[in-house]
Design goal:
Blueprint lengths: L9 H4 L5 E5 L2 E4 H17 L4 E5 L3 H13 L3 E3 L6 H8 L4 E4 L19 H6 L11 E4 L9 E4 L1 H19 L3 E4 L6 H13 L4 E2 L9 H4 L5 E5 L1 H4 L14 E6 L6 H11 L4 E6 L3 E6 L10 E2 L4 E5 L15 E5 L9 E9 L5 E6 L3 E4 L2 E4 H9 L4 E11 L6 E10 L1 H10 L1 H13 L10 E4 L13 H9 L12 E7 L3 E7 L19 H15 L5 E10 L8 E9 L4 E8 L2 E11 L1
Parallel strand pairs: 1-9, 3-4, 3-5, 4-6, 8-10, 10-11, 11-12, 22-23
Antiparallel strand pairs: 1-2, 6-7, 12-13, 13-14, 15-16, 16-17, 17-18, 19-20, 21-22, 24-25, 25-27, 26-29, 27-28, 28-29
Helix pairs in contact: 2-3, 6-7, 12-13
């Protein structure tokens, strides 16, 4: 069993001036980090509660609170966001909130500096960390159902850190850590906080939103990039220009990385990303670094064992035999028992394995077993489709509910042209015809949604809740797009950050201006208000605008960032639109009853 004190002892032996992290290009020294850690330990040691919810978008501040809580013998609950529904669900589970929570949850304050003892004294007292202490509770992503709480012992965290350093420590060297993912989930927690900080590597406290943000970070220091498939898909098509020799490696997890994306990233970075296979429940299981589009083999991590277990359901909805599912035994699990997974797999002679889809995406519909994966594979083969996700949902009125398959589809250019010229029914008919000869009639999707992009959360995952939201209402599809393609990057009670890709054929470019189209300012403010109402509880009445500025035009095909800040006390919505080219627009929108 690894020594769990590796999770807190390194801080006390480092030089005060050594760099723990970078905050807006300014170094955070170990002395400042220790001072904050000691302060939080004192606060938490005095508090009678045992369980605390923690949310902070600053990785160094987050780490100081997390390690302080463990040293004070407290269990930390790690929500993926600080939204009202999340906080309400946590309210009955925890004894307090720490970090960037709304004032109604009374987050714990730091004491004044004069009341604090020197860090060396505050951190040298107390008992050593216990391996069996449940230091963390994480939550599943909710991509296949409701999010579930999963407790983690400190021994599990220490084991994962030891494994990552053994596998990738030599590659990482003294590289800085840059991430596009949040540390509020297990992958980001391990790769952006626990592993680098316990090994003495500096972390950039803010997540990267655009690929081009990497360029200045790589200008003077070696870096590791911690990313996800959703973010890496954007790199090959982005104006990314940087010295890739400074990039010591790229990691990807949180979902399957398409082989063509891996190879495209290899051309951009000099080598393909290192992919990590695991889950919130299991921790890391295996890894791979593709050398070709056909290289699908996974290598287990040290001391991790896998085996196959029989599936008691022999036949899939498309007539294929069911493959056996994986079971894993690992020091990253809470005990030595084998844990059966929902991933189908094939073991290879050299000890590696190939993943073959999830068994838990087999659903029952009127006593028939239906493979959602099989339906998606068939639809994805159509030239009309770029991306697709299917789900089982309840349709009809409450008293006459019946379950149906729904499909959320991102159309290709050919699909968009057919939708614009012939309408939704024509697209539905073609896609249903593609499935008709391969799946039973009961498995044909009855609901179709055509969207610019599948909804992603901050971890780059598609959740069932987000897909269900698309099915609530469906406006008639316009002949021309009226909205940008969007991706959510950050979200809490006061702030939202979105990436907006402006379609070249956006309706609002017409006549503004002929031969030189630009996005009208009224559209930009309308989008700010509409997205503001989507993510915040704004008063119903528009009152007026202040400090409205349009600094730079937005052209067809542009990719911009929309930042929204909600000032609930003043009933105001602040917005800012910017890109790598600079600022485009900003303003303050006022609302009232």
């Amino acid at each position: 069993m690894p020594d769990v004190n590796l999770l807190n002892q390194p801080w006390l032996t480092r030089a005060p001036h050594s760099v723990v992290g970078w905050r807006d290009a300014r170094p955070v020294a170990n002395a400042a980090f220790l001072h904050e850690l000691a302060a939080w330990r004192q606060v938490l040691s005095r508090h009678p509660g045992q369980r605390f919810a923690l949310y902070s978008d600053d990785s160094v501040q987050f780490a100081a609170i997390l390690f302080a809580a463990w040293m004070a013998g407290k269990t930390v609950y790690l929500p993926g966001d600080a939204l009202p529904a999340t906080c309400q669900a946590l309210h009955g589970l925890v004894d307090g909130f720490i970090g960037q929570f709304d004032a109604r949850w009374s987050p714990l304050p730091l004491p004044v500096a004069d009341e604090l003892p020197p860090p060396a004294i505050a951190l040298s007292t107390g008992s050593p960390l216990s391996p069996d202490f449940p230091g963390l509770v994480v939550f599943t992503s909710g991509s296949t159902g409701e999010a579930q709480a999963i407790p983690k012992k400190l021994s599990q965290m220490a084991s994962e850190v030891t494994t990552l350093e053994a596998l990738f420590g030599a590659r990482a060297g003294q590289a800085d850590i840059i991430a596009t993912v949040s540390h509020q989930h297990i992958y980001g927690l391990l790769f952006k906080v626990l592993w680098p900080l316990t090994a003495g590597r500096a972390v950039h406290v803010r997540s990267v939103v655009f690929p081009q943000e990497l360029a200045p970070m790589l200008s003077s220091r070696d870096c590791l990039l911690i990313s996800s498939p959703a973010h890496l898909k954007r790199f090959p098509d982005s104006p990314f220009v940087a010295d890739a020799r400074r990039l010591r490696g790229v990691f990807s997890s949180g979902g399957p990385l398409p082989a063509d994306t891996a190879m495209a990233c290899a051309g951009l970075f000099g080598e393909s990303p290192i992919e990590i296979y695991g889950s919130s429940e299991t921790g890391g299981i295996a890894w791979r670094q593709r050398t070709s589009v056909t290289d699908d083999n996974w290598q287990t991590m040290p001391h991790v064992r896998v085996q196959l277990t029989a599936d008691d359901q022999p036949e899939d909805a498309d007539g294929e035999d069911q493959h056996q599912t994986l079971a894993v035994s690992s020091p990253h699990l809470p005990d030595a028992q084998w844990l059966r997974l929902a991933d189908r797999a094939q073991l290879l002679a050299d000890g590696r394995f190939v993943l073959l889809g999830r068994a838990d995406r087999i659903v029952k519909l009127e006593e028939k077993r239906v493979s959602l994966d099989a339906i998606e594979r068939l639809l994805h083969a159509s030239p009309l489709v770029t991306e697709v996700r299917t789900l089982l949902h309840d349709a009809g009125a409450r008293q006459h509910r019946r379950q149906r398959i729904a499909a959320c589809v991102v159309l290709s250019d050919a699909g968009k042209q057919l939708l614009a010229s012939a309408g939704k029914l024509a697209v539905n008919t073609q896609l249903r015809a593609l499935l008709a000869g391969a799946v039973e009639a009961i498995a044909l999707p009855r609901s179709w949604r055509y969207v610019n992009a599948l909804p992603l959360n901050a971890q780059g995952k598609i959740t069932r809740a987000a897909l269900l939201a698309l099915l609530v209402t469906e406006p008639a599809p316009p002949a021309r797009p009226q909205w940008p393609q969007e991706q959510l990057h950050e979200q809490d009670q006061q702030r939202v950050v979105l990436t907006l890709t402006i379609p070249a054929d956006l309706l609002y470019f017409d006549g503004h201006f002929p031969g030189a189209p630009i996005l009208p300012g009224v559209v930009q403010t309308d989008w700010a208000i509409r997205y503001g109402r989507r993510y915040f509880d704004l008063p119903p009445q528009f009152i007026g605008m202040q400090a409205l500025k349009f600094q730079q035009v937005i052209l067809p095909g542009a990719c911009v960032t929309l930042e929204l800040q909600h000032d609930s006390q003043k009933s105001a919505l602040n917005f800012r639109i910017h890109s790598e080219a600079g600022a485009h627009a900003s303003g303050r929108i006022l609302f009232g009853a």
